[in-house]
Design a protein that fits this description.
The structure is a single chain. 44% of the residues lie in helices and 11% in strands. It is α/β, with parallel strands linked by helices. It folds into two domains: 3-23 and 93-224, 3-Layer(aba) Sandwich (Rossmann fold); 25-88, Orthogonal Bundle (DNA polymerase, domain 1). It is globular.
């Protein structure tokens, strides 16, 4: 970090994983479609879009109705197994601009965390398969929280793991529930258009069309508004 940068109030960046750090929408849709077909059902792209960012149990309830706990757990395991195979097969890339932003934030000495509604096995696999672990200082997953987004718990825990107050963190999100969770935590939030439109993400402090629109300086400027 440069001498001038070191005199500024520090901040941290918290990445949502699916749809922000990685372009995983098609792989997740494939996995959910395969699961639905096994149970004689189907899921439309619009239904999938509406549930993107939810935890698995919430998605299963939304898509299939209330099920016995054992059945829901079995469905979750099958779906995530399918998704992890997509990752291992190299069909889940990073989002355009993600590697460049990760690298520039690391070079500037800005701490980074991943806060995801995904299971820990997914997050661990993604960080290893895409060689991202060196950039990430903390990770919070679905097993670490009692309530999913839009509850702010996941971002509060991530900021705490980085040694930062939520108000000194910028959350990068693409889901409406994720933006709501970030703002409820007291963090700054950048909404990435993709799974949702700019209008749907308008509660964010800034809405962008690509991670290439961001830099450490532009993120820091959010705290000056």
């Amino acid at each position: 970090m440069s001498a001038s940068a070191s005199t500024r109030a520090p901040f941290a960046v918290i990445w949502d994983m699916d749809g922000v750090l990685i372009d995983s929408g098609p792989a997740h849709y494939h996995a959910w479609s395969a699961l639905a077909a096994e149970y004689g059902s189907s899921i439309s792209p619009e239904e999938f879009r509406q549930t993107f960012g939810m935890r698995n149990e919430e998605m299963i309830s939304h898509l299939f109705g209330k099920l016995p706990a054992g059945r829901a757990a079995e469905m979750t395991l099958r779906k995530e197994s399918c998704f992890r195979e997509e990752v291992r097969s190299g069909r889940v890339p990073t989002q355009p601009g993600a590697l460049e932003l990760l690298s520039s934030l690391a070079a500037a000495g800005i701490p980074q965390a991943v806060a995801t509604s995904a299971p820990p096995l997914n997050a661990e696999l993604v960080l290893d398969a895409l060689e991202l672990r060196a950039f990430i200082q903390a990770m919070v997953t679905s097993v670490d929280v009692r309530l999913g987004k839009p509850d702010p718990e996941i971002f509060v825990l991530a900021s705490r793991a980085l040694g930062m107050a939520p108000g000194r963190c910028v959350v990068l999100e693409d889901a409406v529930v994720g933006v709501a969770a970030a703002k409820a935590a007291g963090a700054k939030c950048v909404g990435l258009v993709g799974s949702n439109t700019a209008a749907q993400l308008s509660a964010a402090d800034q809405v962008i069309g690509s991670l290439r629109d961001l830099s450490p300086a532009r993120l820091e400027a959010l705290f000056e508004r």
